[in-house]
Amino acid sequence: MYFYLHIDGKILLCFSSSICVCMFIVFYWLDLCRMEGGNIRQWLNFLVCALLFLIAEASYVPITYLQNAVAKGAVCLDGSPPAYHFDRGSGTGINNWLVAFEGGGWCNNVTTCLSRKTNRLGSSKQMAKQIAFSGIMSNMQIFNPDFYNWNRIKVRYCDGSSFTGDVEEVNPVTKLHFRGARIFAAVMEDLLAKGMENARNAIISGCSAGGLTSVLHCDRFRALLPGGARVKCLSDAGYFINARDVTGAYHIQQYFSQVVATHGSARNLPQSCTSRLSPKLCFFPQYLASHITTPIFFVNAAYDSWQIKNILAPGVADPEGHWHSCKLDINNCSPDQLDLMQGFRTEFLRALTVLGNSSYKGMFIDSCYAHCQTEMQETWLRSDSPELEKTTIAKAVADWFYERRTFHQIDCPYPCNPTCHNRVFGPEDNHQGKNVTSKGTSDASARKLNFPKLTNKVSYA
Fold first, then answer.
1. Which residue ranges traverse the bilayer (predicted)?
2. Residues 133 and 37 both lie in one domain
3. In a domain, 460, yes or no
4. Do 12 and 154 fall within a single domain?
5. Which residues does the annotation mark as catalytic?
6. For 449-458, which contacts have Cβ atoms below 8 Å and span 24 or more sequence positions?
7. What residues make up the domain containing 259?
8. Is residue 49 part of a domain?
9. Tens digits of residue pLDDT in 346-378
């Protein structure tokens, strides 16, 4: 809940009634002391700064370590406990649950997995103690009207396999643990005990590798929850396709095959796929999405920046770096490169056809050069957010979830959509780019926020 407070021409946004009251008192006394100067005014100014600091910190959510999971072998690559961030629901959202899985690519062999042991993608010891929730994770109704008061959980990613690995043996030299599937099970067990077993509405979601997690574990998540609950899945930038690179090779297929083999993932991939196809293909949503029985919604850019950089034009297929500038900024792409990207879009849309037109399978496929759009405020819900059919991602997802209407929209080809936030990477970036767009930085904290028109009275929402 938040409150608008109008004081002497100043409009304040308060995150709680108590903060609003405190700020009202502070400004009242500041006004009385305006002519006094002295220590009282200095002390009150300090109090104002302290309150503003508390407000700024209000959207940050602390980390929770699952220490008891270690005994079950549910650990990160380095053997540290798994972790998540939990912002409890309130009011009408007390029995609604949104479990979002963090992204961060994969590691496909011992060398690449070792490189993750020393950072947050392989060790909870290196994770931030608190993170900001925005977009679909926001606790502010103004920015997230349909899910703001849900129980919102961000599960940290430290296994490198989209939570599918399970190898019992631990090499005594590398001391790598491949236990992603056990982490998934341990987190679910913990959340069920904390109230998720009583869920009335629930969503499993994620971005990138986390978006693939929500696909691979969609039906498994549904099976854990009450039969009468509305349970659905949301995959953001997780529809990775099995496509050739610019040399004609299936680099991504080989890469995913190595991920599955390294982590022992085969037994934890959906049996509806592994019973028909090689496990290496069951890491691609196009081969299993049609067999997912739980309703699922896909948010994806047809020109997904990660897929352009790593599937269409990976470094191994472009040793001389002809694609380097293009991958940093789509505006730098040559006509020939744009033609190949249009061809990639065609392949992407063809891979989507397996979803059919069922209301159980929703989609928001825009023509932006982007990657992950549900957890960034500027692309989730803001006055200049991307739209399809005059509908933002936030509204499309919520309308589909609550069955207010179906949503099955595919954008026209680039560069037709003026609402896109096309990602621009810094020259020093490799796989993880700065959140910079053609409309400016996409870091919500660095942008001027666009609020609805405010009133001159305290209002409640």
1. 12-30, 42-63
2. no
3. no
4. no
5. 208, 304, 371
6. 449/382, 450/382, 450/383, 450/384, 451/13, 451/142, 452/142, 454/4, 454/6, 454/11, 455/4, 455/6, 456/6, 457/4, 457/6, 458/3, 458/4, 458/5, 458/6, 458/20
7. 59-446
8. yes
9. 999 999 999 999 999 999 999 999 999 999 999
